[in-house]
Design brief:
This protein is an alpha+beta fold and 461 residues long. Among the domains are: 165 residues, no CATH class; 153 residues, Heat Shock Protein 90, CATH 3.30.565.10. The protein is 57% helix and 17% strand. The protein contains ten helices and twelve strands. The strands form three sheets. The protein has a five-stranded mixed sheet. Helix 1 packs across helix 3, helix 1 packs antiparallel against helix 4 and helix 8 runs antiparallel to helix 10. The radius of gyration is 49 Å and the shape is rod-shaped. The protein starts with a helix and ends in a 5-residue tail after the last strand. The model has no long low-confidence stretch (mean pLDDT 80).
């Protein structure tokens, strides 16, 4: 019971309602005491008026008047003259005097609580104003036992009534909370458990139905999350299947490229100057293709091989990348490529992986410029800055679309061109992270795009 939301709400409701009733009880009991004392003053005034009307009242009648008024004596001040009207023996000294002519609420509450806390019968003096202006002041002496008994009886009835109201109110709130909150929450929990049993089944996605705004928003957020998760699981399954297919293709392609590599030896023996000039680039391209297929096989195992770090001349790698991409540019295309790398700049990196990264970035820039049909410029520049090697790939293209920016470096979601998969950027970012560096998009817009590679210099020995 205490562990459930409805049970705790029930207990808290009872406590809060009882607290409110106690806050009502304290001033109520003070008001009851004040009314009780006023009633004794009124009775005493009536008894004194009877005596004033007939001075021949005997002792027995006077005693009866005092007994009916529940006081020991009455003093009435009329015309500035204080006069003892009725009197009888007082059993004990007067304990305290209470003036009801203009008391503050705090004083009334304090006196009432002190009276309830004192079980001993006391004799007190009470002073008040006569009703209907029948004098200037009326004063009585009375015992407190009847007052305290009446206050206890009144307080007990108030507490019983408060308890009944609290239980009734708490029950109504309990049923209301159970109907409006607890049952809908249990429904959401049941829907979550049902979905968790088979998250790939779209039929198990929760359908928002709550009428309470907050619960409705929670159900809508849960439905959105479950929809995205189901899509992600399906995509993961497709990626796993694609990975298996790519691994098989890469395995066979590696064998084909290995065979092609054997034929390049004969090409290098050709006497044609053009063939002899292009043969080394062909050999390098086939070698890189073999390395790429081997890396793809490793990637299919959800792991990228660690970089084989070595000191390499960055200008040579940049020149190879630009030469390879220039061969893919058609003769009628107005796309130019340039490199600005200091001749003596040596970086510590895996040459094959760095070539793949730069080649991916330049190829993306070339394809983006080709789609515009207007041509443009692609630049590669590098420098040493803040203890790191900085490499920037720039283009004057139209910039990345918003979707590509939002899913940058995410496979199959961050493609910058129509039909693109986004794998190139994802693989490039992973390779640079393997070097301890970062690949970031510095800026993009109508004036062009800039990607920056930062490689830590670290220990170069």
């Amino acid at each position: 019971m205490l562990r459930t939301l409805s049970g705790r709400f029930l207990i808290l409701t009872v406590i809060f309602v009882m607290l409110a009733e106690i806050l009502i009880f304290v001033p109520s009991i003070a008001r009851f005491r004040e009314d009780y004392l006023f009633s004794r003053l009124e009775r005493a005034q009536i008894a004194s008026l009877a005596l004033l009307a007939d001075d021949m009242i005997g002792p027995d009648l006077e005693e009866e008047l005092l007994r009916n008024a529940e006081v020991f004596n009455v003093v009435l001040r009329r015309n500035e003259a204080r006069q003892l009207i009725l009197q009888s023996p007082v059993p004990q000294p007067i304990h305290a005097t209470f003036d009801l002519r203009d008391p503050s609420p705090l004083v009334l509450i304090r006196d009432a609580m002190l009276r309830l806390a004192d079980p001993e019968p006391r004799v007190i003096r009470v002073i008040g104003n006569p009703v209907r202006e029948a004098g200037l002041l009326i004063e009585v002496t009375m015992e407190t036992s009847g007052l305290r008994a009446a206050m206890l009886d009144y307080g007990l009835r108030i507490l019983i009534l408060s308890a009944v109201i609290s239980i009734f109110t708490a029950s109504l709130l309990f049923l209301s909370v159970r109907a409006l909150l607890v049952k809908p929450i249990k429904g959401v929990v049941a829907a979550m458990q049902n979905y968790a049993a088979n998250p790939e089944d779209a039929r198990r996605i929760i359908t928002p139905s709550a009428t309470v705004t907050e619960l409705r928003e929670a159900e809508e957020a849960l439905a959105k999350m479950e929809t995205e998760l189901t899509g992600a699981l399906r995509q993961k399954e497709r990626l796993a299947q694609l990975g298996g297919a790519v691994a098989k293709i890469s395995h066979d392609l590696r064998n084909i490229l290995t065979s092609a590599q054997l034929f390049t030896d004969r090409i290098e023996m050709s006497e044609d100057p053009s063939v002899r000039r292009l043969a080394p680039k062909l050999v390098n391209s086939i070698t890189r293709a073999i390395n790429l297929t081997e890396s793809t096989l490793a990637f299919g195992k959800a792991e990228e091989p660690p970089p084989k770090l070595a000191r390499v001349a960055l200008a040579d790698i940049v020149e190879d990348v630009l030469d390879s991409e220039r061969m893919a540019v058609s003769d009628d295309s107005d796309i130019s490529m340039s490199g600005d790398v200091p001749t003596g700049l040596v970086v510590r990196a895996d040459p094959e992986q760095l070539f793949r990264v730069l080649s991916n970035l330049v190829r993306n820039a070339r394809q983006a410029l080709a789609q515009t049909g207007k041509g443009g410029e692609i630049g590669l520049r590098a420098c040493e800055e803040d203890g790191a090697w900085k490499i920037e790939v720039t283009d004057t293209g139209p910039g990345l679309p918003p979707k590509a920016q939002a899913n940058l470096f995410t496979p199959f979601q961050g493609g910058a061109r129509k039909g693109g998969s986004g794998l190139g950027l994802a693989i490039s970012a992973e390779l640079i992270r393997g070097h301890g560096g970062t690949l970031t998009l510095e800026r993009t817009g109508p004036d062009g795009t800039v990607f920056r590679i930062s490689l830590p210099m670290g220990e170069t020995g």
